[in-house]
Structure formats: structure tokens, C-alpha cells
Amino acid sequence: MSGGVDSAVAAARAVEAGHDVVGVHLALSETPDALRSGSRGCCSREDADDARRAADVLGIPFYVWDFAERFREDVIDDFVAAYAAGETPNPCLSCNEKIKFAALAEKAAALGFDALATGHYARLSDGELRRAVDEDKDQSYVLAVLTAQQLRRAMFPVGDTAKPQIREEAARRGLLVADKPDSHDICFIPTGDTRAFLGAKIGVRPGAVVDADSGEKLADHDGVHGFTIGQRKGLGIDAPASDGAPRYVTSIDAATATVTVGPASALGVSRITARHAIWTSGTAPAGPVECMVQVRAHGGLAPVVATPVVVDGEPGIEIALHEPLTGVAKGQAAVLYAPDAVRGDLVLGSGRIATTA
């Protein structure tokens, strides 16, 4: 129970379904006394209090479990290291994979609990992960790192309902979080200033911004962690390109601290190699499969052929796009969905993008 409306209603529905429910709030912040500001961040003392009040209304036991150290090591440190390496990670995937459905689920199983229910917007059908009914709130992308075994012990009680109806239900049930704003941005950066957060963690690692066509140095920068593929603003470039067209970040080389910029036409990617492949069915396909790929949490789908391969000694995926795709960065997740209209909401698997071409 995060302290938000979704997990509160998820708990209420689990109680109503006849389950023996215990509410657990994860203390993930090392500064829990910091106040939540509007819709930014989470894991504050305020959120814990909101979760406790919801549990009281539902009449269920409530506990706070401290996972702050594990969260720092497995999520925050991984996030910082990935940016320092020129990647663009999504910490929500790491949190689901390593904290909520690993550390938390393992502790729950050791205490005799059968399943972990959360307020994520996704659905499970015969053990298969599917998109939520509410496409705008769908979180199947950030859950695609879960294994078949983890999914078997998961419940997503609100995935079959649109968010406005969840808020209405919360109000009917007397849950005070019915109108609480959703959390946005990265939960451990409540200011929303990712560049400043990374700068404080990584420090100054100067390098150059260079033109993709001419190789000309266009500007200096304080670290590759301040950039991501497709970025247009904040490049530190004073003069426009000779053709007057805007420049975008097209590649990042952390080893040389070089950020390369070029025209929008240089952003297209036709091939993706992903490492750390996870197939949600528990079994990798025997060969190439036609499917759809999504490379950002709220991005669109693109048709591809995905082939299981070995990348750096571990299971990976080679993804060939039918048409070039933009906005693809190393460190992002490539999530595969079934291609047809009947099963198009079905998650097939995922991998972490290692290379693009």
C-alpha cells in the first residue's frame, strides 16, 4: 500500500473477494520525513500515514517494512550508474523486478502469504500478463520484467477498471485518498530535476558535444548523464546548424564523454539488441516471432521480428524493425507484445536495450 488511491482500492477489492489481507507499506526513502510536494514523488511519511488510514478503514492489519537500503542499492545506484554509462534507464522496472516482486514478495512468501496484490494497472489472464483496460494508465510495460514464477504469485485487482471509476469507488468506500493526486516523475527525485540529482551523485565529467556530420566540436558539457537520445533542448549549442534545422542527441559515448548531435533524420533505428531477456510465459520462443515492440513507458508500438539470441553470455533478443523507430536509447526496456487484434494486449517478454543500429 503506497498511500495512493490505486493500492487502497486494490486492498479493498482483495478483502471483498474473501482473501485474508495484510497491508504493507514499503519504506523506500532514506529521508521519509520529507514532505510530498503535490503530485511529485512518494514514499514520504505522509504517504505511509495515508496507507495506514486506508488500512484502518478496511479493517486489516498494517505494517511498514523498511527496504530503503535495498532500494538504494538495487534501484537508485543502478539508475545513477546507467546514466553515467550513457544509458537512459527506467527505475520503475528495476523497482518492480528487484524490490516489489523480489525482495518484498520473497519476504511475504517466507511469512506464509500466497500472493502479492498491488495497485498496478495491468491484468493477468491464465497467468499471462496483459494490458490494463485503461490504456492511459496501463503499466504492463514496467511489469514486463517479471518472470512467469513472479506473475503466478501476483494480483492486479484494479487492472480491469478505468482510473476515474477507481476514484469513485474509493470515495464510496470512505477512503480518504480518493482525490489524492497521482505521483509523477521519479519517486526518489521529488523535485523533478533529474539532471541536478545526477550531477550531485556523479559530479563533473567534462566532455564535448560534436556534430555528427562534420565532427566539429560545438560545445562543452559537464557529463553525459545530462543527455539522452533524441534530446533537443539543453545541448549548450549557441549557433544554429548551417541548414537552420534543429539538432538532436544521436549518440552518447561515455568512455570518451562525447555527445554527438545531428538532424532528426539520424535518429531512426532499424535494429535493436537487448540483453537480460525475460519471457513472461517462462519459455523463450524457438525462433523468430512477429510481434510489436514498445521502447518507452508511454510510447507507441512498432511491428518487429524478435529473435532469441545470446548477448554477453546471457539470454537476449535481436529485434528487427519493419520501419525505422526514433527515440530508442540504450538502457531502456524493449517490451514485446503479441501482434494480432485478439491478443494484442498480451505481453510476450522484454529485454534491456544494449545496442542500436
TrEMBL record:
EC number(s): the record gives 2.8.1.13
- Family (UniProt): Belongs to the MnmA/TRMU family.
Site Interaction with tRNA — annotated at H120, Q332
Question: What NCBIfam families does this protein map onto?
Answer: PRK00143.1, trmU
- Residue ranges for the region (Interaction with tRNA) are 137-139
Protein name from the UniProt record: tRNA-specific 2-thiouridylase MnmA
What are the record keywords, sorted? Answer: ATP-binding, Cytoplasm, Disulfide bond, Nucleotide-binding, RNA-binding, Transferase, tRNA processing, tRNA-binding
* Record's GO cellular component terms: cytoplasm
Q: Does the UniProt entry include the keyword NAD?
A: no
Q: What InterPro entries does the annotation carry?
A: MnmA-like, MnmA-like_C, MnmA-like_central, MnmA-like_central_sf, Rossmann-like_a/b/a_fold
